[in-house]
Design brief:
The chain is built from twelve helices and twelve strands. It is an alpha/beta fold. The chain folds into two domains: about 170 residues, Rossmann fold (3-Layer(aba) Sandwich), CATH 3.40.50; about 160 residues, Dihydrodipicolinate Reductase, domain 2, CATH 3.30.360. A six-stranded mixed β-sheet has the order 3-2-1-4-5-6, with helices on both faces. Helix 1 links the parallel strand 1 and strand 2. Helix 1 packs antiparallel against helix 2, helix 4 packs parallel to helix 5 and helix 7 packs across helix 8. The radius of gyration is 20 Å and the shape is globular. The two termini are about 20 Å apart. Bound molecules: NADPH dihydro-nicotinamide-adenine-dinucleotide phosphate (NDP) and the ligand N[C@@H](CC=O)C(=O)O. The ligand N[C@@H](CC=O)C(=O)O binds next to helix 7.
Length: about 350
């Protein structure tokens, strides 16, 4: 019988992404144990308004999901705690903080403080929250290295589609001169629906219902989310030191249905394109709505699907396409970091 390693997770945030992870553990927990020898237990779930629960022997993912589906909260489950996330990080018997609270691109808080506290308390950290990684990556990396702990943030760019891992690991040894693509699922979904005749407001409401949009969708439609991802790509994969204010940014709110339909009538598509490139000794980044001819490789990338093309010195262009948003895809990103930690790092 292969050795089993147990990972006890504290989840901060149980929205679309947290529930996606719980679904994966509900449906694949046994398979993960057999296939990889990992026993992944959620021991604590902390939310802002929907309750906080703790069981040192593991909470049942199905019960967590049923409670949210039926009651809209966790307040009727056993294991209630009057805990803040800080209390959970201090008091729960756990190995990993999974930080999935709301992204705040102005301060990175409160997520960054949760992450710092977790690292100080000897917990590994996995997050899909773009605030801490776009704003405080250097500090988080340093704290994790000093404490000899894992920090994973694959889900911050293209959710479960491994854009960062592709650049960092699979393309290691190549020099990257440019990265460009569609890195926000919500806006790509909205643009695709508007091409079919749906109104902007209905398309946005649908993107929210499907769990693609940020809690404040201004972050999506005004291009801040894509700009944060451009910063993360630049800083992680090109060793840059960009801030959000360095990104030339324009969202999709200037595009009307008429503009989009007119482009479609002539075979073109509007896409929100993020671009990061080397220029002289500097790294630059932009996010702009761009009209693409139908023949362009990104023109047919539709819905919440994302795509990124890495321009490399040895392979030329390498393109990765896959889901860019959604609970299950983001839950998978967390799982992929956990398995990386298990397979390459923590053993
Ligand atoms: N959804 C997606 O497709 C993707 C999301 N991400 C990122 O993952 C994170 C989670 O996204 P998602 O699940 O969609 O977001 P949701 O808005 O669906 O859920 C956010 C969760 O965080 C909780 N929360 C917010 N603030 C606090 C706080 N101070 N303390 C404790 N809990 C808090 C909320 O509590 P309550 O339930 O009480 O409101 C809620 O449970 C975000 O940072 C997002 O940017 C990254 C990639 C893709
Ligand atoms: N709101 C984001 C979620 C993933 O990062 C998006 O739509 O891409």
């Amino acid at each position: 019988m292969a050795e089993t390693t147990t990972y006890r997770l504290i989840l901060v945030g149980f929205g679309s992404a947290g529930q996606g992870l719980a679904q994966i553990l509900r449906d694949r927990g046994g398979w993960l144990l057999r296939r990889y020898g990992v026993d992944v237990q959620i021991v604590a779930v902390c939310t802002r308004n929907r309750g906080t629960v703790y069981n040192p022997d593991g909470l049942d993912p199905a019960a967590l999901l049923d409670a949210v589906a039926q009651d809209g909260h966790l307040l009727n489950l056993p294991g209630q705690r009057d805990w803040t996330p800080e209390d959970a990080i201090d008091q729960a018997d756990a190995d990993v903080l999974v930080e999935l609270s709301t992204t705040d691109l102005a301060t990175g808080e409160p997520a960054t403080s949760f992450i710092r506290l977790a690292l100080a308390n000897s917990l590994h950290v996995i997050t899909a929250n773009k605030g801490p990684i776009a704003l405080h990556l250097t500090d988080i990396r340093r704290l994790a290295a000093e404490a000899q702990l894992y920090r994973g943030y694959e889900g911050t760019v293209m959710s479960g589609t491994p854009a960062l891992r592709m650049g960092w690991s699979n393309l290691a040894g190549c020099e990257l001169s440019e990265m460009r693509g569609i890195v926000n699922g919500t806006t790509n979904y909205i643009l695709t629906q508007m091409e079919q005749g749906m109104s902007y407001a209905d398309a946005l409401a649908e993107a929210q219902r499907l769990g693609y949009a940020e809690a404040d969708p201004t972050g999506d439609v005004e291009g801040f989310d894509a700009a944060a991802k451009a910063v993360i790509l630049a800083n992680v994969l090109m060793n840059a030191r960009l801030d959000l204010s360095d990104v030339e940014r324009m969202g999709i709110t200037t595009l009307t249905r008429d503009t989009i339909e007119a482009a479609r009538a002539s075979g073109d598509r509007w896409k929100l394109i993020a671009r990061v490139w080397r220029e002289g000794g500097a790294v630059r980044a932009s996010v702009q709505p761009t009209r693409l001819p139908a023949t362009h490789p990104l023109a047919s990338v539709s819905g919440a699907t994302n795509a990124i093309t890495f321009t490399t010195d040895m392979l030329g262009d390498v393109t990765l396409i896959g889901p860019g948003a959604g609970g299950l895809a983001t839950g998978f990103a967390v799982l992929s970091d956990l398995l990386e930690m298990h397979m390459l790092w923590a053993r």
